[in-house]
Predict the 3D structure of the following.
Amino acid sequence: MPDYILSDVHLRYDCPERGERLASVVEQMEAGDRLLIVGDLCDFWLASRQRRVDPLTCPGLQALAAFRDRGGSIMVLAGNHDAWLGTFYQRVFGASWVEDSLELESHDLRLQLAHGHRLGKRNLLKAAMESRAFLVAFGLIPDPLARLLQVRLDHSNEAHRAAADARHIAVYRRRADTLAGQLDLAVFGHIHCPINDSAGNPRLIVLGGWHHRASYLRIDDAGATFIVEPDPAETIDECQRSSTG
């Protein structure tokens, strides 16, 4: 049975297109398949401001629960947006929860999975935003103020996107190089640009975000295939998107 690996879906109840993209992929999976999610399945907005909404109103979460019910296996690694959602994932769709990186074998390939936000020099503000205290506080502020702060963060991320992505990619490549001979694939998330770099050893995969496309790694007896499925019109959803959100 194949393994599927993805990251950075950033589910929010007010961004249904993200959940619909995820559902369209998960619904193709069969009993006995394994799904590994390498961080940020859900967005910090859901984690802090939408916890009282019925999770099964989200097409993506509903699809994950149905996949579990028909015999699928789901493992989720912590990202910077969903580090406090482990028990939520366990309750809603029976996920196994991993706090940090994970090494495993899949169809005779050796992999290391890591969201990637803890590698290299960290932005102190973004590190603080991962705390439970921030999530609680952000959930309490009035909605207009929360959305204003979101817009300002989006603008800051957009202005620094190229430089931030380049820094993270360099860190990922250096990390992968230290594992030469020990791994076949080094797999990361966090930045939202999908990358498939087979020139080095090990092969470097950056899974990419789901704000306007689906991208995932499929591993079976034929090997590892990186799949990017852009939306027909390359549409971007109405919610905020950030490169290293």
About this structure: The first helix runs from residue 16 to 26. The two ends are 32 Å apart (CA to CA).
